[in-house]
Specification:
The complex is a heterodimer of chains A (237) and B (613). By secondary structure, chain A is mainly alpha-helical. Chain A has 6 helices and 2 strands; from the N terminus they run ααααββαα. Helices cover 64% and strands 4% of the residues of chain A. Chain A has a two-stranded antiparallel sheet with strand order 1-2. The two termini of chain B are 12 Å apart. The chains are: A mainly alpha (237), B mainly alpha (613). At the A-B interface, α1 and α5 of A face α5, α6 and α7 of B.
């Protein structure tokens, strides 16, 4: 283990013995619970209330999102490893793991970007209506020559329906939180090159600990979103 | 580190205006909060006076219906978010570290950041007056009246962004005070030895931290609808506009307690001091405050009795609302019990405190009347409700604020406010307050609907409306007397000495005004009413290092956090981003970049500059 000269352990001049900043991040996460709680509540209130499609079952792809969920959860593991490394004063390992965390977090964001784009351009197969009832706007060419089905854009944007508005706002704000987290992680990575990471090792790796708490929280929120919006969500059209 | 990210040099020992801009001292920030909030209190009062002039006579034509709508909306927003809340924050800042024996708050720069964000949020909220379209939907902004199609002016955008920015300020400040109170108490200051004002600050801070995100989500949804054409409150897409009402009042009712709990804390400090008795039933008062904090979450739908939520919801919320009157009533009895048998010294501060008890009982009783949902169906949207909220917010919060100002002014400035002028202020306030608001009970019961810009003759409302207007102007005059007293006493007031009231809590044990580091020696606390104990028992003291999140100095001398302009820069970015969200996204991105730069510089800047050691 590389031994960096750690700053002398700071006196904890606090009433509880817990560092102010650690208490701050916990209280802040409490506030965040209310934030995501309200967004999820809105989603649930409007669940199944859209008067036009597409609904969750039409666009959500459980397989793809399972992969991205796995990626995000693994990033939490990397986070734990990087915190473990820094609390032992091992700056080199810390750099490896924190970079892994940030990469996995970015991968999740990439999935989300792909997913959002995919939803907007979603196509679906529709049954051709009987020829006589066919209104003008149907793509006539698609239903010619006795075809029984045709394909058309059935995309979901934030403006499409209630599902679109609630889904994109909820997952979008989660994505924004992940983005902030990735920036935070990369900042810590960059910071570890300053004075050979002394500032990060100080206080038992508190600076990393704070980011880790935030990161795990964002992951836990995703577990709730994945369960509520995706796993339970697709069971009802 | 002499430079911040190599761009700005850090201010060292600044003077003049620069000292205020870069301050991280909780006392100075408290003064900034107090003065700013009082200016907005005057603005809100002016709005009220214009409305009262309009309503003084039937079919008066001083303002149009549209301007009247903007006036009552901005009056409420200004008084709630820009006057009472920051006045409470002023007391938190000024008093909390002094009362718990700390040298500053846990995060001094975050504290400065909260103030600057508050100021910018206030500007954004008030921008409507400059561009000619203020919010006009009432402070509750019910959907779908707020939709782009029904309300195309920028007013609602200022509402959304302004309240959002103010929310950031409130949450940052509340987090700071939670950590300060839990983590920075003097040795021996256990939770059950905390002054009641500190307890109420703690409960209020928890309410802020948990309630603000809920309204933030509501505001985000409204913003999405207005700016990006989403469907959260779009009835054509199947939206349920009641969702907004729930989100708003789930925040809005805890907000009511955010406004009144600090007031109750102030009263619980003023009354024992001037009765020369400990607070009667301290544990019960504390527990009642905590109970109110919890129960504040269980009563929100009483704002929605006439929405049609059904008999079960209405009954449940009627019962919880009546129940929350119990801890409030307990507190009232405890305050009366404190006065009972005490040697009461009727200075101005306790006069305002006793005025609070009197007026708050009136407002509380009409509150229980609205709690009965069938009765509320009659009172909804009438002046009866206006009477109620002014008895609890003016009669409650503002009376307590004045009690607090007369009580702590000598600690903050070293001079006493004039008692003679103070008595005039008090009695004129009592007269004006009751003349202005009591007749509204009659008007409401006679069916006068609130928020209407005028009313026809011959409804039997003319007399009481005129009385109310006269009362409002007396109230305005009384407030001017206070302003005079404030400025005069600031320069010529009697020198107060450290402990003019024979105080009970630690802030009276140090010089007035307190030195930058507050306590030369951190006191050790041996019981409730620590300073009283110290004066009449055996006082002990120990040396302890100064506060500040990063200040881990080993305790040789007192190192206070150094001044910093980064809180201002960081919050300026937020303010620019706020205007950007209303007018143009590139500006919003610029603002966000400034905030991000500020955050980085901030995290690289030590709380205490090493070169000052």
């Amino acid at each position: 283990m590389e031994h960096t000269e750690a700053a002398p352990h700071a006196e904890h001049a606090t009433t509880t013995g817990i560092d102010h900043r650690k208490m701050l991040i916990w209280a802040f996460l409490g506030s965040e619970c209310m934030f995501f709680g309200s967004l999820i509540a809105t989603y649930l209130v409007y669940y199944g209330q859209s008067i036009s499609g597409p609904g969750p079952a039409d666009v959500l792809d459980i397989n793809t999102t399972t992969v991205s969920t796995f990626v995000l959860l693994m990033s939490s593991l990397m986070m734990v490893l990087s915190y473990s490394a820094i609390s032992k004063g091992d700056v080199k390992r810390f750099r490896v793991w924190i970079l892994c965390t940030a990469i996995l977090g970015s991968t999740f964001l990439g999935f989300q970007f792909f997913e959002f784009t995919e939803f907007a351009h979603h196509h679906q197969e529709f049954e051709c209506p009987p020829a006589l009832d066919r209104p003008a706007q149907y793509p006539d060419t698609a239903c010619m020559d006795g075809a029984t089905h045709y394909e058309a854009n059935y995309g979901l944007t934030p403006r499409t329906n209630l599902f679109g508005s609630t889904f994109f706002t909820l997952t979008g704000f989660h994505g924004a939180h992940v983005t902030v987290g990735v920036i935070w992680l990369l900042s810590l990575f960059g910071y570890s090159f300053r004075r050979r990471g002394e500032d990060l090792i100080r206080d038992g790796g508190l600076n990393v600990d704070l980011a880790a708490l935030y990161w795990h929280f964002v992951d836990i929120v995703w577990i709730v979103i994945f369960t509520v919006v995706y796993l339970i969500g697709v069971t009802v059209a | 580190m002499a430079t911040i990210a190599g761009v700005f040099s850090r201010p060292t020992r600044p003077t003049g205006i620069w000292a205020w801009i870069s301050t991280v001292d909780h006392k100075k920030i408290g003064a900034l909060y107090g003065v700013t909030a009082f200016v907005f209190f005057l603005v809100g009062g002016l709005e009220a006076l214009i409305m009262r002039l309009q309503l003084a006579r039937a079919e008066h034509g001083i303002v149009s219906a549209e301007v009247f709508s903007q006036l009552f909306t901005m009056h409420a927003l200004t008084m709630i978010f820009l006057a009472i809340m920051p006045l409470s924050a002023a007391f938190f800042n000024l008093v909390v570290p002094l009362m718990i024996g700390a040298r500053d708050v846990a995060f001094p720069r975050l504290n400065a950041f909260s103030y600057w964000v508050f100021l910018l949020g206030a500007f954004i909220l008030q921008t409507g007056w400059i561009v000619g379209s203020s919010p006009n939907t009432g402070w509750f902004a019910y959907a779908p009246l707020t939709a782009e199609s029904f309300n195309p002016s920028k007013g609602m955008d200022f509402y959304v962004v302004g309240l959002g920015v103010l929310g950031v300020s409130s949450v940052a400040a509340a987090l700071n005070f939670i950590i300060t109170i839990i983590n920075m108490r003097a040795p021996g200051m256990t939770l059950m030895r905390l002054p009641v004002f500190i307890w109420m600050t703690l409960v209020t801070s928890f309410l802020l931290v948990t309630a603000m995100p809920v309204i933030t989500v509501g505001l985000i949804e409204l913003y999405m609808d207005r700016t990006f054409g989403m469907n959260f409150f779009n009835v054509d897409a199947g939206a349920d506009v009641i969702l907004w009402q729930h989100l708003f009042w789930v925040f809005g009712h805890p907000e009511v307690y955010i406004l009144i709990l600090p007031a109750m804390g102030i009263i619980s400090e003023v009354l024992p001091t001037f009765s020369r008795k400990p607070l009667y039933g301290y544990p019960v008062v504390v527990l009642s405050g905590i109970t109110i904090g919890f129960m504040g979450w269980a009563v929100w739908s009483h704002h929605m009795f006439t929405v049609g939520l059904g008999p079960i919801a209405n009954s449940v919320f009627a019962i919880t609302t009546m129940f929350i009157a119990v801890p409030t009533g307990i507190k009232i009895f405890n305050w009366i019990g404190t006065l009972w048998g005490g040697s009461v010294d009727l200075k101005t501060a306790p006069l305002f405190a006793i005025g609070f008890i009197f007026l708050f009982i009136v407002g509380g009783l009409s509150g229980v009347m609205h709690a009965i949902s069938p009765s509320d169906a009659q009172q909804q949207d009438t002046y009866f409700i206006v009477a109620h909220i002014h008895y609890v917010l003016f009669g409650g919060s503002i009376m307590a604020v004045f009690a607090g100002i007369y009580y702590w002014f000598p600690k903050a400035t070293g001079r006493l406010l004039s008692e003679r002028v103070g008595k005039w202020h008090f009695w004129l306030t009592m007269l004006g307050m009751n003349l202005a608001f009591y007749p509204m009970h009659f008007l409401g019961l006679d069916g006068m609907v609130r928020r209407n810009y005028t009313y026809p003759e011959g409804m039997g409302w003319d007399f009481w409306n005129m009385v109310s207007t006269i009362g409002a102007f007396i109230l305005g005059f009384a407030t001017l007397i206070f302003v005079h007293n404030f400025f005069r006493s600031l320069r010529k007031g009697e020198i107060s000495g450290d402990d003019p009231w024979d105080g009970r809590t630690l802030e009276w044990s140090i010089p007035s005004p307190p030195p930058e580091y507050n306590f030369a020696v951190i006191p050790t606390v041996h019981g409730r009413d620590a300073f009283w104990e110290q004066k009449h028992g055996s006082g002990h003291g120990v040396h302890a290092p100064a506060g500040g999140a990063y200040d881990h100095d080993e305790g040789h001398g007192i190192h206070m956090p150094s001044p910093s302009i980064l809180p201002l820069i960081t919050s300026l970015g937020l303010g620019i981003a706020g205007y950007g969200l209303v007018y143009s996204f590139p500006v919003a991105i610029l603002g966000a970049a400034i905030t991000m730069f500020g955050t980085y510089a901030w995290s690289m800047e030590p709380a205490t500059a090493p070169d000052e050691h």
